[in-house]
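To: structure desk
From: M.T.
Subject: fold request, one chain
Message: Could you run this one when you get a chance? Sequence is below, nothing fancy, just the single chain.
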Amino acid sequence: MTFNDVEFKACLRCGVEPVAEDVRVRSLTEPNVMSVTCPACGMSDRIAWGSVGQASLEHAVATLSSSWNRR
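Reply: Done. Structure tokens follow.
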């Protein structure tokens, strides 16, 4: 699966393609959250990121992808 031009590999546990979700919160005190989840087995990972600028989202996607793909 590709999200924001970054590849997320299939779930290592069951081989199903994951689903990514980007939840943006318009708040100065709460972070935005990006998650990736396997719809078959429920394995998931997520990362909180700041709301200032697009670079923050790009960094969050790259970090989450790296974490997910290492599993």
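Reply (cont.): The chain has a mean pLDDT of 90. Let me know if you need anything else for the meeting.
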